Amino acid sequence: MNANPALETETLAEHWSDRPYHRHWLLQRADDLFDFFEADIINPKGGFFELNLDGTVPGKTNPVRGIHVTCRMIHCFAIAHLLGRPGAMAIVEHGMDFLWNRHRDTEHGGYFWQVDDNGPVDASKQGYGHAFVLLAASSARAVGHPLADAMLADITDVINTRFWDEAHGAIAEEFERDWSAKDGGNYRGQNCNMHLTEALMAAFEATGDQAYLSKAERIADLLIRRKSAELNWRVPEHFDTGWTVDQAYDGDQMFRPSGSTPGHWLEWARLVLQLWTLGGKTHDWMPEAAKGLFFQAMALGWDRDNGGFVYTIGWDNIVSRPFKLWWPMAEGAGAAHFLNQHQPSDFHEDSYRRIWGTISRHFLDRKNGGWHQQLSQTMQPEAELFPTRDDIYHALQACLIPLFPADGSVLEMIRTNGDRP
Prior knowledge:
By secondary structure, this protein is mainly α.
């Protein structure tokens, strides 16, 4: 694998995101995603189905519903409603009812990680899941859902009183149902804090409450300005309770793999620029951080031989998991667009085109619809980590972000620039 990102490129005076054909193509891909999921995702007993790879409903009579899937569907179909997609609000309403009445723990507070028809299957309280509750509540408020204010107040209180660590400016990872320590309580992770940063910005956009934005800035300061900068813009994933990096940690391959994940470098590159714009462009370190994160992801994470971003890299910069997932591609497209808007360069534009070209050739499932969620090192479809297709969150935002100004979340940009596409 050639790690040099300085690819030969023409002089790219015009951004693809400004071209009418490309914009139409992106909107079509967003419609394809809505079409793939919309018909069969609603479980009549509550929540949403995780679909088979061909888009059909699995045969399970009592499937487990994860909170992040519930919340992401609410968020995505709130976006669809703002775009003017008929029927989208009914999906938001279905998700909000399930989130409020089935995921919420009315005895101890907070929200269950997994539930089925009979109640909690995994009653733990996960920072990752609670971040997405905040995102869902904020998105629901943007479309005027009647439960949104109550849920926003509830989840804000839970985050502030249970998860937030004021001394370090970030949240704890997880608790048991009764808020006792889970697995000793000694682990801290960047992934839940990254998604909380996104959700805090959404809550700020929905309410104007500066406290949300301040928390987002503190998380970014800890994880990016300090921790990632110390590692030459590689994002560390795993920490102890004092926020010292644990480079030897190896946990769940989906949520806590060892090493570092270039997809998260890309995600942070976009989020940092979004945070910079929402904060009035007062933090001078943020644009350079975004540029460095994206450059390193292309330099170390892009497979020059086969295409796509590898899943994980060891701290020796050697690829440790060479298969490719769809979400780093989606985050790479969004990050490249944000960088093109705020720090335009041929490298960012070429990367944007290269990423979308690879998505089009390899990740779009032209037989069944939707996107392939996992490909092998040589870009063949696999389903090791993702035997089902559970949501459209990453892919949908990638399709829509380039259609709107890079000044905030895609939902807020649609709300304030609804006629732009």
